[in-house]
Amino acid sequence: MSAAAAVAGSQGLWLVSRASGLAVLVLFSAVVVLGVAARLGSAPRRWARFVFAEVHRTLALFSVAFLGLHVLTAILDPFVTIGWAATVLPFASGYRTLAIGLGTLAVDLGGAVLLTSLVRARLGYRAWRAVHWLAYLAWPVAFVHSLTAGNDLGVWWVVLIEWGCAAAVATAVLARLLSGIRHPEPAGRPAGSSGHLTPGKGALR
Amino acid sequence: MTRRLRVDPIACAGRRLCAEILPELITLDDWGFPIIRAGDVPGPLLADAQEAVRTCPKLALWLEERS
Amino acid sequence: MRPYDETTGRPASVSTRPAGQLPRLLPAGFAAGPASLAGHVRRYGPAPSPILDWPRRKALIDEVERSGLTGRGGAAFPTARKLSAVAARRAPVVVANGTEGEPASAKDKILLARSPHLVLDGAVLAAAITGASRAEIVVHPSVREIIDQAVAERRWAGIDQVPLHVVTGADRFVGGEASAVVHWIGKGVPTPTRTPPRLSERGLGGKPTLVQNVETLAHLALIARYGTSWFRSVGTAAEPGSMLVTVLGAVNEPCVHEIAIGTPVGEVLRLAGGASAPLGALLLGGYFGSWADAAAAAPLPFSAAGLAPLGAGIGAGLIAALPADACGLAETARVVRYLADESAGQCGPCLFGLDAIAGEIQRLADGRTSSLATLRRWLSQVDGRGACHHPDGAVRMIRSALTVFAPELERHARGWCCATRKQTVLPVPPRRPR
After folding, report:
1. For the domain C37-231, what is the CATH code?
2. B32, A205: Cβ pair inside 8 Å?
3. Which of A159, C17, C318, C339 could form a disulfide with C394 if both were Cys (CB 3.0 to 4.6 A apart)?
4. For the domain C242-323, what is the CATH code?
5. What residues does each domain of chain A span?
6. What is C186-233 written as a DSSP string?
7. Domain region containing B32
8. ipTM summary value
9. CB–CB contact A49 B11 (8 Å)
């Protein structure tokens, strides 16, 4: 293979890797926002609540495809040595150890969330929920990875996408936190109650 | 082999996704909690019933098998 | 130790205790305090010998079945069936339930206070029958000390094959429910748990658990000593034996009495010194029970079959007498508010539904604008939709109130009430801070 072709091939892989990485960020952000919407959505809306839950699940599975593409093209790129170990072991990459390592960490965390969700019925609610909270850690890790592992922050629309995702997720997380404060655990109920029920939320909601 | 849709009232938090998926069998009381029609799940609705079981965010629904 | 007939497992000699005589569980006259172990043995004879092999255990279960003993905690489940179910499993645990969360009922406290050793005999016997390695004795705080002393007495005398562990029951209405008791002992949380699995399959610490009311265990201890025909010598054919009844309200001597099942209601009221004022209605069974018109109920036998025509039952053995000059709706409203506050808060329909129902009934009692149709809709939405029977019991009591106090409903709807009594009748604990 001529040097020019090799360079062109590498450029191609690098492009696909960055593009798919951006796609994963957008999809992951959408998944987080939809997850919060599914949890908080109340009162009749245009779309039924189960739609949010279903699309949340579907997009999460869909983003795995893009993630696979993103990781594969990065590993196969001959111009940078990341190594197969770095797909699962954080900070095992020679190239940009910290930045890539964060990406691996995000995959590990997100992977745990995804896998436990697939076997949710067998795992039981409590265990599933405990792992699911890791999603709130996985996203910022993935976001910092997206800022540090690539070179595209000079492009205006890349920056727009980055901060757009951040704004969407930040809004969703804020909404989730506020709802937790507005409907706290009712005092006086014995521990062991489900904690989401509060009297006075009113009849006929 | 018949199947009955059951709800665990302790796990249920009234998220109401089940009633959206299976309105033929599930209605909501005045506080948003599911009232499941008594009797077996008819064949044509079984897929939707399984969907409801899968979608419940609190894993509060299950299909009880009786022969 | 009393000898046993090897083949049938029955006592080898006929009991010296005269049949048909009451009281059986409670001391005959006024007693200054609890029966000591010596006094207990003097009155009833020694406890039956330990039953270790399966044929003898089976023989005793059959004896209990022939005797027709049913649970005295309110559900009236056949005791022999419960014993069989748990005895068939490995490494069970016995729980004696003396929590008595119902504030109006006092029978379990009185029984534990007066005849603790009868209950403890029964618990040890139940452990022997089911093959349990220990018995947990759950008691109301007011009798904890007495039971501790009784257990210490027995330990010193070395008479029990299984250890007895005393636990103070939770001070909540639902704390007395069987799964709530197990949850309380195991995890310190007095709330009912989901069924399946049943307690007889998986209960305390994951083991098969036998939960019996303390009065049931006391009867068990006597059946093992004196046999089926003695037990059946009082009561009715369908509901044999005696039971403890708490009589309170507008009676001259509110107390706990032991009666033969099937004793006419009016007779039970006479045992309590008779009515202290003309009566309007009776609350039968407990706060989970049913209201009944006093005149209609008086001639009826106090038994499940006897009270069935009025849609009432014996429940946990309670008769509360409401005088005619008191407002049945106001009393009901107070009790329902209490029941709503005492919801474990785990199930939406109970937590929200009883709360809404309590508000609506208070409006009915106050004569403010209210909707009977809404109330009835809520009652049918709440009935049977919890993990335990707390909402069901409240609904039953309320529906009976709407029937028995229908004339009052009419008057209240028009804005007036003919009750003249100012003091409240039914005991309701003060609202706990939320």
Report:
1. 3.40.50.11540
2. yes
3. C339
4. 3.10.20.600
5. 3-180
6. HHS------SSSPTTTS-GGGS-EEEEEHHHHHHHHHHHHH-HHHHTT
7. 2-66
8. 0.94
9. no
